[in-house]
């Protein structure tokens, strides 16, 4: 899978390099600051694509003594680097737009600029959608982040084409730096989004969608022996997950039986969770008398209280570090 991801990101890098040359050609022909802004963002595509290539290569390396959880966290550095590059590009674009407001330059060969920009926009849109699809399918946040960046480039290029057409038909050259300023603001926002995602991943912020999915899988395939699940923590490493949790089981079962139940949980999540590989660290808790009203093991030989109700597993009772009923 990672070899395929590496080939995809290299394709993205090659296409971005060619499109960057095309956009700078359009800028030399037109002298449009808006086209220059688009070309500057494409340079970031190339730099970010190169960093993403290294990130995917590093992610493919197996776990070792120094990296017991693997190298997947580098993907968060990758999208953080990409977000920072986008943010810097947005600042440069706003600076150039301000310059052209005070020292405007005539625009030439607008028709050629529209055709070149239009062609690069279509290619970037197709490439960006493909990267998002591949990233979602493989669980690679590097591919998804790169795809989001390239789609941002495509959307800003659409605004650029509209601006160039308006300049062509109206002759209002002030539209050029104004469009560049709008593009700069939009690019700054997209850079902030990627930086925010990077920081949340590096800080092990919980992805509640993954938590909900894990809870749903466990609830759907729930066994009577699994009295409750609590103190769940989910960490992401690239496309893989590391999950800690406590499972309460009857205190009298043998160690081998408890081990079999935990293996069943591990196999279940790895089979049902749609992407990546999940490593479980499960701590078993012995049941206590307060567990009896919620225990569905009706033939329990040591039950001290009758079964009362089934507790549905939700975030509110799976995430805290306490047994159900306590």
TrEMBL record:
Keywords: Membrane, Transmembrane, Transmembrane helix, Transport
Entry-linked Gene3D superfamilies: Cation efflux protein transmembrane domain, Cation efflux protein, cytoplasmic domain
Taxonomic superkingdom: Bacteria
Record's keyword annotation contains tRNA-binding: no
Record domain Cation efflux protein cytoplasmic: where: 210-287
Pfam family, one: Cation_efflux
TM stretches of this protein: 7-30, 42-59, 79-102, 114-133, 154-172
Membrane topology of this protein: Multi-pass membrane protein
Subcellular location: Membrane
Domain Cation efflux protein transmembrane residue range list: 9-203
InterPro entries referenced in this protein's UniProt entry, alphabetically: Cation_efflux, Cation_efflux_CTD, Cation_efflux_CTD_sf, Cation_efflux_TM, Cation_efflux_TMD_sf, CDF_Transporter
PANTHER family per UniProt: MITOCHONDRIAL METAL TRANSPORTER 1-RELATED (PTHR43840:SF15)
Record-stated family: Belongs to the cation diffusion facilitator (CDF) transporter (TC 2.A.4) family.
UniProt name for this protein: Cation diffusion facilitator family transporter
Organism: Chitinophaga horti
